[in-house]
C-alpha cells in the first residue's frame, strides 16, 4: 500500500452531501475483485450524459460539461472536498479503489459512512473529518481552484493562508505513514510466524499431513 506522509495537490470541491458508493463507482463496473482499473469509471453517472457499460468505449460517450471533474479549475485534482455523509450506501470497497485509481489521495468531509471511512485507511486514502464551519472555509478557499498541502506527519493542512489542524486515530496514522495495510502489518511479524509454524510442524507433524 502506498504510504501517505505529506501530499500537495489540486482540490476538487464537490458541493454535495450524501454522495453514495453507487455514485462513486456504479454497480455495472463491479466485475473484478482486483484493485485496479476502476479510475476511468469514477462518478461515471455524473461524468457522462449517457449511460455506460464496460463494453462502451469512453471516447464514444458524451461528457457532462457541468460536472465538477470537467471544470478546468480542478483539473488534475488529487484532494476531494465534500459535504457530510460521504461514502454512504453499499459497503463496496471498489468505491475507494476507484478514487485511488483516479488519483485521489485524500477526502475531506464533515462526516463519512463508517465502512467507507474504514476502507480508506486499508487502501492508502486519507479521510479527514472536520467540522462543518471549517469545511465551509475550505470550500470558500478552493472554489476558484487552489492547491492544498495535507501534512499527515504534522496533522495539519494548508491552503493559501488558511492552516487547519486535524486529528487521525494514532494507530491508523502510523499505518498510513508506514504504508501498511492489514496484510503488510501482519507480514512485519513474518519471522515469528515462520518460527511458530516450524515449531508446530516439528511437535505435531500429523497436523501437516505427515505419516506418524
Which class of secondary structure composition applies to the elements?
alpha/beta
* Overall pLDDT level: 93
Shape: globular
Measured as a percent range, the helix fraction is 25-40%
N-to-C SSE string, H for helix and E for strand: EHHEHEHEHEEEHHH
* Distance separating the two termini: 43 Å
Radius of gyration: 21 Å
Largest sheet report: 7 strands, mixed
Total strands:
7
Query: Percent of residues in beta strands?
Result: 15-25%
Number of helices: 8
Point out poorly predicted stretches: none
Strand order of the largest sheet: 4-3-2-1-5-6-7
SSE topology sketch:
Elements: E1 6-13, H1 21-24, H2 44-47, E2 79-81, H3 94-102, E3 106-109, H4 114-122, E4 126-129, H5 132-142, E5 147-151, E6 156-159, E7 162-165, H6 170-178, H7 182-187, H8 190-203
Q: Please, could you describe this protein's structure?
A:
- By secondary structure, the protein is α/β, with parallel strands linked by helices.
- Helices cover 31% and strands 15% of the residues.
- The protein has helices at residues 21-24, 44-47, 94-102, 114-122, 132-142, 170-178, 182-187, 190-203; strands spanning 6-13, 79-81, 106-109, 126-129, 147-151, 156-159, 162-165.
- The chain has a seven-stranded mixed beta sheet with strand order 4-3-2-1-5-6-7.
- Strand 5 (147-151) and strand 6 (156-159) form a beta hairpin.
- The chain is globular, with a radius of gyration of 21 Å.
- The model has no long low-confidence stretch (mean pLDDT 93).
